[in-house]
Amino acid sequence: RLLQRPAGGGPCMHLPAVILLFHGSRDHQHNEQAKALAEAVGAGYAFMETEPRFAGEGLAIPMFIADGEDYRKALAAATVKSPPLLKWPGFVDYLRSLGARLYIFHGPDATGEVKATGIPVAFLYGEPNVDAAPCVDVAAPVVLTRGYIYKKIQERYGRCKTKLLPPLAEQPEFIKYLRETIPTILKHHYPYR
């Protein structure tokens, strides 16, 4: 639980529980890793498409990489109206720090926000497509968990003898990044400050 100290000192006030709001999947591994990621940063978790579903209580932050239909559904339900991770402070720099030569996203990139990052990208769905992407020594699937989408990237980019980095939830530095950044997201996007 996050604590907030009122201006001028004094006792801490308890804020409602922080909940990371994920898409959810029929893929059990996705759901388990989403739960573990939330617990690793000291938050609760809920899903849009499976149980436990978000019940409307707490500080629910949508956990989506980029803008899209699923993100917008989660944003409508969320109590914290934060942007997708691509627009979080330091997220693109975090991706760059991974040192990958190619970053593979779910896609499509309808808004152009992924291509606007300037990092070399390919999409599972969209252009440039992963099926035609160059083979590189290290590629980073930009997904939260080792669920259905990660497995599709492995399958479709498997033609290359590339080292695929693990999903973000398996990266200790990403967990550290989330722990450090969630308070900033709450400060700027929680409507009842």
Structural account:
The protein is of the alpha/beta class and 193 residues long. Helix content is 30%, strand content 16%. The chain is built from 5 helices and 9 strands; from the N terminus they run βββαββααβββαβα. A 4-stranded parallel β-sheet has the order 7-6-8-9, covered by helices on one side. The protein has a 3-stranded parallel β-sheet with strand order 4-3-5. β1 and β2 form a beta hairpin. The longest helix is centred in the C-terminal third of the chain and has 18 residues, at 172-189. The two termini are 16 Å apart.
Question: Summed up, what is this model?
Answer:
Helix content is 30%, strand content 16%.
Question: Topology, pairings included?
Answer:
Layout: E1 3-4, E2 13-14, E3 18-22, H1 28-40, E4 44-47, E5 59-62, H2 69-77, H3 91-97, E6 102-105, E7 121-123, E8 138-141, H4 148-157, E9 163-164, H5 172-189
The percent range for strand residues is: 15-25%
Q: Outline, from the CA principal axes?
A: globular
Helix-strand makeup class: alpha/beta
Radius of gyration equals: 17 Å
SSE sequence, one letter per element: EEEHEEHHEEEHEH
Low-confidence regions: 1-13
Spatial order of strands in the largest sheet: 7-6-8-9
**Cα-to-Cα separation, first versus last residue:** 16 Å
Largest sheet: 4 strands, parallel
- If you average the pLDDT, what whole number results? 90
Count helical runs: 5
Number-wise, the strands total 9
The percentage helix is 25-40%
Keywords:
single chain; 193 residues; alpha/beta; three-stranded parallel beta sheet; disordered N terminus
